[in-house]
Amino acid sequence: MKLQKIVNRLQKLHPKEIDLSLDRILNLCRKLDNPQNKIKAISVVGTNGKYSTIQAMYAILKEAKINCNIYTSPHIKKINERFVFNNKELTDNELSDLLKKVEIVNDNKAITFFEILTAAYFYKAAEYPENINLIETGLFHRFDATNILNQNLASVVTSIGLDHLDWLPKNERTIEKIIFEKTSDLLNSNIIVAKQSEEISKHIKEKIKDNKSSKFFFNEDYNFSSDEKNFFHYEDKFGRMKLPMPNVNGKFQLENISTAIATLKIVKQIKVNDHHIKSGITKIHNIARLQEITEGKLKNLVKGNRLLVDGSHNPLGAKVLNDYLESLNCEKHVIVGMMANKNHQEYMSYFKNIKSLTIIDIPNQSNSIKGKDLKNKLNNHTNIQYKENIFEAIKSIPVNKNDLILITGSLYLAGEVLNLN
């Protein structure tokens, strides 16, 4: 209750949820003695794969007995997920105390919720100057609150695609503009660029050509292959490794994991060996990224059938998600709820050969599209229906043996689903 009261107060300090600018957080961090300048950080920028890449790095670093601080957003089940220090998520009381301290220093000045959370993260992270900080940047990076570091160990650029276009001027809603916002202001250290389309890779290279960082690109400087059932091969300038398949679903996760491995091997200040990598990638903790629900209220409804939840919400995410579904030899039933500002038709256009599509409302999200409105926008899909909530949706699907049910379309929906379960 104490934590929620503080959160409610902080959310009222600025009339906008997002106001892309660095002045407010810089002013607050000055009052906090610039904690962002006292940490060792790896920044992770991109559209998709940021969280998964961070979790892969975290799993490997833990195997190497290296302590981490982690800052990600948004949270899925509870806000504490955003604040990991010394390999432990803050408790409600610890987070309440931290936010209270920063709230007092802020002195009721206008600041967005994300900005004050980011300042609080940096303030706490400075208590652990030897830890590795894994920091997920927000909307576009250039004016994101996390982009106030003077130096870092590396910048990781995960896959880039079209998303959050409503935050750009109408005449600038292009992939070139997104790449500029995400990559033009990267620090001079190491830049590791994950797998991209040929066009996007070309644009990234053009944007960072004057950056003095050491640059490493997927397919040019590191790579992987997966031609064996239980193993995949990772290769870079340091050599080749035969690795066990990770404990996460989807071939696209091998791309994220390979990028994580490349980053940790490239950063000279970090000492990880083959054993840490082989063991770590089998212990990755990914929430709402092709996560299989194996027990709970919702699992009880599907009994012996597989139930997956995935927070993908943009066309690039839909594409890799469908690639995974296409690799499975079973009938697929998809349940979807989405936020209002997404490209609904393009997102759903990537899903091929699904048996049924059920549209639902996302509870507790005023910025989501109503399920009935979403169904009307997607009426070109066959075997489509609307149900008010996730329980009714699951119960209405006529599954046969070995059928799979996937819940997707929004990280906010994924969080609601996991909490309900």
Describe this structure in words.
The structure is a single chain. This protein has 15 helices and 17 strands. The chain is an alpha/beta fold and 421 residues long. The protein folds into 2 domains: 2-280, UDP-N-acetylmuramoyl-L-alanine:D-glutamate ligase; 291-420, Protein-Tyrosine Phosphatase, Chain A. The protein has a 6-stranded parallel sheet, with helices on both faces. Helix 1 (2-10) packs parallel to helix 4 (92-106) and helix 3 (50-63) crosses helix 9. The longest helix is centred in the first third of the chain and has 15 residues, at 92-106. It is globular and about 60 Å long. The two termini are 22 Å apart. The relative contact order is 0.12.
Short characterization:
35% of the residues lie in helices and 17% in strands. With 421 residues, it is α/β, with parallel strands linked by helices.
Say which CATH homologous superfamily of the largest domain is assigned.
Mur-like, catalytic domain
Q: Quick one: CATH class of the largest domain?
A: Alpha Beta
Give the N-to-C terminal Cα separation: 22 Å
What is the overall pLDDT average? Answer: 95
SS summary, helix count: 15
Q: Low-confidence spans: pLDDT under 50, at least 5 residues? A: none
Q: Work out the helicity level.
A: 25-40%
Chain-wise SSE layout:
Blueprint: H1 2-10, H2 23-31, E1 40-45, H3 50-63, E2 68-71, E3 84-85, E4 88-89, H4 92-106, H5 113-125, E5 132-136, E6 154-157, H6 175-183, E7 190-193, H7 198-207, E8 214-217, E9 222-225, E10 231-236, E11 239-244, H8 252-266, H9 274-280, E12 291-292, H10 297-302, E13 306-309, H11 315-326, E14 332-336, H12 344-349, E15 356-359, H13 371-377, E16 384-386, H14 390-396, E17 404-408, H15 411-420
Parallel strand pairs: 1-5, 1-6, 2-5, 6-7, 7-8, 13-17, 14-15, 14-17, 15-16
Antiparallel strand pairs: 3-4, 9-10, 10-11, 12-13
